[in-house]
Amino acid sequence: MEITTQMIKELRSATSAPMLDCRKALQEANGDYHKAVDWLREKGMATAAKRSDRQASNGVVEMYSHGGGRVGVMVEVNCETDFVARAEQFRNLAHEIALQIAASSPKYVKADEIPAAELEHEAGIARARAIEEGKPENVMAKIVEGRVEKYKDEVCLMRQTYIRDETLTVEKLILQNVAAIGESVIVRRFQRWELGESTKEE
To answer: Residue 186 sits in which domain range?
Structure first.
């Protein structure tokens, strides 16, 4: 896979690693952004990624109401210090995350929060659809895996495409801010309500 200058810039802005190391990481990862970040972490070059292990217990609970009160969002975003929690850049990031949740209705923060039963259910639907479409058996597993990954992209906040910039995921947006802020930033939890929707108890 060709490693473009844009890919290197994105990785550099997220990790603060040197350009040559970013290129090397992308080459080693065959262009896979997440694997490249992991490669840089393993080499001790990714300052932003390394910070994710630091304790983040300060932050803000951001509340956002959309469409004249038709949609409401509450999200807890944590950082390491009270100083950063009060900073404009951190507050803006928390607001952007709340906007993302309002617009894109994620169900989970990260993919590892999705229950196994839900993933199995989605895999079953994907397999049935592939059979219906007459896909050959030898590529069935690959098709099912691809559709389950696409499902994760839709329901996980971190994997969603950022609403203001389709070249970024929410995870990349946060990593860029981590590099600039110099502290770990964690989306702890969120809740989204829509007027008239039924609750699980109903």
So the answer is: 58-110+156-194
